[in-house]
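Continuing the batch. This is chain 6 of the set; chains 1 through 5 are on the previous pages. Same settings as before, nothing changed between runs. Recording input and output for traceability.
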Amino acid sequence: AALALDNGLARTPPMGWLHWERFLCGTDCAADPRRCVSEQLFVEMADRMVAEGWRDAGYDFICIDDCWMAPTRDKHGRLQADPKRFPSGIRKLADYVHSKGLKLGIYSDVGNKTCAGFPGSYDHYDLDAQTFASWGVDLLKFDGCNSDSLELLAEGYRRMSLALNKTGRSIVYSCEWPFYLRPVQQPNYTEIKQYCNHWRNFYDVYDSWSSIKSILDWTALHQDTIVKIAGPGGWNDPDMAMIGNFGLSWDQSVTQMAMWAIMAAPLFMSNDLRHISPEAKCLLQNKEVIAINQDPLGKQGYQLAKDKKFQLWERPLSGRAYAVAVLNHQEIGGPQKFTFSLTFLGNGLACNPACSIRQVLPVSRDWGVYSWISSLSVEVNPTGTVLLKV
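Output for chain 6:
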């Protein structure tokens, strides 16, 4: 069991694009071809990822979520793509994605049916893993709907991990295992990391500030359990980036980008790359923030302090550096100042005897050199975040 996930993948949090939140289960291509879950959608997104710098910024996965399948398996018992929406089949789509220097992700479910009611992988784990490998798939998102018991859920996640490894193909394994366990029992994260490359703990993200806020609150509440297990090869997944959609203000978009970097989160956008503002694109492609997210030390950040207006988070980075986020969680009034002592950071070591400080978000600028006993005063907009590198 200790060697179950010996795939050497996800040494830093994976990055890419995922269809779910923005495109959901759109299956009527005749009525709405631009928003339909189809071969055309993924080809167009792959083209945009290359032409507009997403791949070069690090976003190299393009991932299919639920609703790609035909309603039934083929005569050999294998999963098959919906023939109308994916006329060339998944293998051809994978070949196209690979020709662009990108990787293809796909979706299945541990139970009898997927969350949207398509065929699940229960009792077909080896066959489905072999099918995905034969198609050239590079990532599997494995959901947890419609499993009859927690024992079958756990067995299914373990078996699919072993089945993927047995194919000999490098396939990143994205799990929802702890999310489905949590209402009933505390997940064993040591075991989950043995089998999964990243895992969801909490509800689906929505295109709203209340959703982003609830994910951050949940993460801080459970950080003593989840932060220590994250690291190269296995990551806590707070779900997709909503930047470039409709529900977040600019400051809230900055907060999601900054905090997903602090949390060492897999960075999967769910937006329409054919219609994205220059500002959202610039934020998502910000090299300094991505460097924090992808830091090779691989330690997840955590909340250091919280009061009625502010949260202070830090993340240890390689080279004895720290990423520091100051989040103003008030939803009323104007910009507010938060002042804290630099002795507070890194157990007193981050700025001892002195440190340089650079602001990364919302705009990048150098703040200069500070001594260990200095205090720092940061002005932050409501629901906004200032991200620093110390």
